[in-house]
Design brief:
This protein is mainly β and 80 residues long. The chain has one helix and seven strands; from the N terminus they run E-E-E-E-E-E-E-H. The protein has one domain. The structure holds zinc ion.
C-alpha cells in the first residue's frame, strides 16, 4: 500500500475501502497474526475491507490496523 504521512501525527498511513464503501485511514504496512497471540488492541481491515477486532483477526492474513483509534487528530479528521 502506498503510504503518506498522516496530517496529524508521524504515522505512515494509507487508505482502504471498507465493505460499507467508505474510505478509512489505516497504517500503511500490513501485519499478520501468527499463532494465538492477539494483535495490538484496535480494529483491523483486510485488503478487501473486511473488519476484524484484534482478537478475531485470522492467522496468516495481511491486515491493516485502523489508524483513527490512536491518532491525536482523529476528532478533527472526522469533522472534515
Ligand atoms: Zn494520525
Amino acid at each position: 500500500m502506498n503510504g503518506k504521512e498522516c496530517k496529524f501525527c508521524p504515522t505512515i498511513i494509507g487508505w482502504l475501502k471498507t465493505q460499507k464503501g467508505k474510505w478509512t485511514a489505516v497504517e500503511a504496512n500490513p501485519i499478520k497474526r501468527m499463532g494465538s497471540d492477539p494483535l495490538p488492541r484496535g480494529k483491523y481491515y483486510t485488503t478487501f475491507g473486511e473488519l476484524f477486532d484484534a482478537n478475531d483477526v485470522p492467522n496468516g492474513v495481511d491486515v491493516y490496523r485502523s489508524h483513527w483509534g490512536d491518532c491525536p487528530g482523529a476528532e478533527k479528521a472526522r469533522k472534515n
